[in-house]
Specification:
The complex is a heterodimer of chains A (about 100) and B (about 290).
Chain A (H helix, E strand, L loop, with lengths): L3 H20 L3 H26 L3 H31 L13
Chain B lengths: L1 H13 L7 H23 L3 H21 L3 H27 L13 H23 L19 H10 L3 H22 L11 H10 L38 H4 L3 H12 L14 H12 L1
Helix pairs in contact in B: 1-5, 2-3, 3-4
Classes of the chains: A mainly alpha (about 100), B mainly alpha (about 290).
């Protein structure tokens, strides 16, 4: 087994996350799919660090985690604010700009 | 494709000893499918809370995979920050906002699911194909010794890198976290003054201003009447029946059935208070109407 398998796993997880973003209607689940994509990228970063025998990739993954945590706070707060005004967490109901 | 193969050559040249042992392979073949199953479960389960739990499975598997790949600090951070904090925050918001909103099966854009599935499969095939064709024969290098300060491996090496080479990015991270915390407070803050409690005086004034259909409260059952049962309507001062006090449920049931239920509970010998004693003939008429319907 080579570390390439980790990269293949990460590619599959990223594709599944992308499909989830396109398919799901609940804003919170869409957000979880984005988290999955971030996680898969983290896996590939850690694997690259492993392949090169250095720690730079791990530092990148660490920063991705920090940014993801900040993004979750802001994103969930936005979803809560939308839920409060529209009484719904579905992305289809947020269509005030449509007509 | 050329850049990929060049990268492959470079990576292959760098490859020294193969440090992927049997244990790691075993861990990968157990945890990799688990992570995939979690991701698929998250996308395809309709209930949002179940989706979150599937994602927890994926994140835990990835955390252990980090540890296996000689990144213990990131592995623990993954488990503590992602599955511990982020997913709990997700569940918290789900319980408040999206718990009962299971995804509808109605497609708003026609053919979107099919196109998304095609895109996903194509994307996965492209990525996997490119990676598998270009990164052949890649060997993992031995990680820096985590117990040797000079080698700079492990959590200590990570800390040294963060505070030397990546110091500026790290300080930007601090600013980012502060802004994110502020944004969370601002977005989630609800002005309490809007829902301030109204005093009795405000209520009376609103009533007489005509904000309500009726100025007085609705008459309760049994007011000025022989009993206080729901079946006894309230009387107006002139002795007529207040229509607002009639119970919809009882008015829609005919008298014979009410008496039969009364008998079933108390025995047939019990004397009944006629539920509609005050209605007299009117009640019979309404009963006949009800039977006609």
């Amino acid at each position: 087994m080579t570390p390439t398998y980790y990269l293949l796993l990460s590619a599959l997880l990223f594709a599944i996350g992308a499909v989830g973003v396109l398919v799901r209607r609940n804003a919170i689940v869409v957000f979880m799919c984005i988290e999955l994509m971030l996680n898969s990228v983290n896996l590939s970063l850690v694997t690259f660090a492993r392949i090169n025998g250095e720690l730079d990739g791990q530092v990148m993954a660490f920063f991705v985690m920090v940014v993801a945590a900040a993004e979750v706070v802001v994103g969930l707060a936005i979803i809560m604010a939308i839920f409060r005004s529209r009484r719904s967490a579905s992305v289809d109901d947020t269509n005030l700009l449509k007509y | 494709m050329t850049s990929f193969s060049q990268a492959a050559v470079v990576l292959a040249q760098q490859g020294g000893e193969d440090v992927v042992g049997t244990g790691e392979a075993l861990a990968f073949w157990v945890l990799g499918p688990l992570a995939l199953a979690g991701a698929l479960g998250m996308v395809f389960v309709r209930n949002a809370v179940h989706s979150a739990l599937w994602l927890v499975l994926t994140m835990l598997s990835l955390g252990v995979l980090y540890m296996v790949q000689s990144a213990p600090f990131l592995g623990f951070t993954q488990i503590i920050v992602y599955t511990g904090a982020v997913m709990m925050l997700f569940l918290f918001v789900l319980m408040m906002a999206g718990r009962d909103s299971a995804d509808s099966m109605v497609e708003v854009l026609r053919g979107q699911r099919l196109l998304a599935a095609l895109f996903g499969m194509g994307f996965a095939a492209l990525l996997v194909g490119a990676l598998a064709r270009s990164l052949v024969n890649v060997q993992a290098q031995a990680p820096p010794d985590p117990y040797d300060p000079a080698a700079g491996g492990g959590a200590g090496g990570l800390g040294r890198l963060i505070f030397t080479d990546f110091l500026f990015a790290f300080e930007l991270t601090a600013a980012l976290l502060i802004v994110a915390a502020l944004a969370g407070i601002v977005l989630a803050y609800r002005d309490k003054r809007e829902g301030q409690k109204r005093s009795q005086r405000d209520l009376v004034e609103a009533r007489f201003r005509g904000d309500y259909k009726r100025r007085s409260p609705y008459p309760g059952p049994g007011v000025f009447a022989t009993g206080n049962s729901v079946a006894t309507p309230a009387l107006l001062p002139d002795g007529s029946i207040a229509p607002e006090s009639l119970s919809e449920l009882i008015e829609s049931t005919n008298t014979a059935r009410l008496i039969a239920e009364h008998d079933r509970v108390l025995g047939s010998q019990a004397e009944h208070d006629d539920a509609r004693a005050l209605l007299a003939e009117e009640s019979d008429e309404s009963e006949q109407e009800g039977e006609r319907k």
